[in-house]
């Protein structure tokens, strides 16, 4: 873990891939998360690396940055 002026950077490794590390950027002011695996940007679903940081920070609900509009009830379908 490393602290910058606006972000906390977590270095996350998983048991099944011990030689790989991912960087999760967490801004606690705006509750924004970004991961170097880019799964959130690609699929719109939080990756296990972000979930690890959520558990470590004891955050019990997803922030708005982790729920894309297409997964909400208020999404509109164009006809």
Characterise the protein shown here:
GO terms for molecular function: zinc ion binding. Keywords: Metal-binding, Zinc, Zinc-finger. By secondary structure, this protein is of the alpha+beta class. It has one domain (2-71). It has helices at residues 39-43, 48-56; strands at residues 2-3, 8-14, 17-27, 32-35. A 4-stranded antiparallel beta sheet has the order 1-2-3-4, covered by helices on one side. The longest helix is centred in the middle third of the chain and has 9 residues, at 48-56. The relative contact order is 0.16. The mean pLDDT is 87.
Shape: globular
Largest sheet data? 4 strands, antiparallel
Low-confidence stretches: none
Terminal Cα span? 47 Å
Q: How many β-strand stretches?
A: 4
What strand line-up does the widest sheet have? 1-2-3-4
State the secondary-structure class: alpha+beta
Relative strand content? 25-35%
Proportion in helices: 10-25%
Pfam families: SWIM (PF04434)
Organism: Arachis hypogaea (Peanut)
Domain SWIM-type: 10-58
Protein name: SWIM-type domain-containing protein
Descriptive keywords:
18% helix, globular, alpha+beta, 2 helices, single chain, 79 residues
Question: How would you summarize what this structure contains?
Answer:
The protein is α+β, with helices and mostly antiparallel strands and 79 residues long.
Task: Itemize the secondary structure elements and their pairings.
Elements: E1 2-3, E2 8-14, E3 17-27, E4 32-35, H1 39-43, H2 48-56
Antiparallel strand pairs: 1-2, 2-3, 3-4
